[in-house]
Design goal:
14 helices; ABC transporter involved in vitamin B12 uptake, BtuC; about 75% helix; cell membrane; globular
Length: about 325
């Protein structure tokens, strides 16, 4: 029973990471936007939902005691707005400058969470965040299975929505902008308009994942949203395959399994005095796995692969016509 409860806990955490990776896949895999500020948008969602749903606290602002679902919707709204503002201000930049800017946004968010004690609780974080099925907390197995069911439903809804969007005219325009921006612009498509939309939707999904994580654990602190989180999510997307929503989910589960497994292994093999140093082996394990995946499958496990060109006048005209109609 303990093993089953841990498995439910593991899958819940992995699926929350899958949500973050799905948001990044929309931004990078579908649109080609190099976002290195993933941790910042996850933090925005977590803190927004926590402030909306926690009980009143005289030590800080917020604490409105609203339902959990309202907190999740509020997290998506605030995260989407923050991503849209970031996109409007930065998407004129080239990919390397965009990466630096989004990383700066994530650092600013983390520093605000650390220092704005009247709003975020500062280094002490925010506790007493309501947890779905909190009444089952005394029965870990039922509690973990219930949370797994909720997170699974949310992840499935987001996955199906993104699959539909990627095949819609909107998704075809994003792919066209990723592959050949000038050709898409020549067909009358606004590159900045579509990219801001994609960046905002991706940011909203990341914020939703942050809100789910906050309510799953019941406590958040600035140390949860360090750059290492962005590194983890990028590795998950690269391993699963950029451009594939299925790859985003499978890659997240696989990388999180190696991360958690290597952590458990070091705790067994090394003494408590050496475990702090041995923790770096988690990064080594992820790095080795990433190298192996890229050597064997350069596009990831489920990544987009270049299609063989079709010959003939009609085949050449078809892609342009589909984009023009979208």
């Amino acid at each position: 029973m303990d093993l089953l409860g841990y498995g439910a806990f593991f899958l819940t955490t992995a699926l929350i990471f899958s949500l973050v990776t799905l948001g990044l896949n929309l931004q990078w895999g579908l649109t080609g936007l190099f976002n290195v500020g993933v941790a910042g948008f996850v933090a925005i969602g977590a803190y927004t939902s926590a402030l909306l749903t926690t009980p009143d606290d005289a030590a800080r602002l917020g604490g409105f005691g609203l339902p959990i679902l309202v907190g999740w919707l509020g997290a998506m709204l605030v995260g989407g707005i923050a991503a849209a503002i970031t996109g409007i201000a930065t998407l004129r930049l080239r990919s390397d400058y965009l990466a630096i800017t989004t990383f700066g946004v994530a650092v600013v968010v983390q520093l605000v969470a650390l220092n704005a004690q009247k709003l975020t609780g500062g280094p002490f974080g925010i506790g007493f965040i309501p947890r779905p099925f909190g009444g089952l907390a005394e029965t870990p197995l039922l509690f973990n299975l219930s949370n797994l069911a909720v997170v699974s439903v949310v992840t499935l809804i987001v996955y199906l929505a993104l699959e539909h969007l990627s095949r819609s005219p909107w998704g075809r325009v994003l792919k066209a902008l990723r592959e050949d921006e000038q050709a898409a612009i020549s067909l009358g498509k606004s590159a900045r308009f579509y990219r801001v939309q994609a960046f905002a939707v991706g940011g909203a999904i990341m914020a939703l994942a942050g809100a789910l994580q906050a309510h799953f654990t019941g406590f958040i602190a600035p140390d949860n949203y360090l750059p290492a989180l962005t590194f983890q999510v990028w590795v998950m997307l690269i391993v699963g395959g950029s451009g594939s929503n299925t790859g985003a989910v499978i890659g997240s589960i696989l990388v999180w399994a190696i991360w958690a497994g290597s952590g458990a292994l070091t705790s067994v093999l090394f003494s408590p005095e050496q475990q702090a140093r041995a923790a770096s082996l988690q990064i080594v394990a992820i790095g080795v796995m990433l190298c192996v995946i890229l050597l064997v499958r350069p596009n990831g496990l489920f990544g987009d692969r270049p299609r063989r060109p079709r010959f003939g006048k009609r085949a050449k005209e078809a892609p342009d016509e589909s984009i023009a109609k979208s």
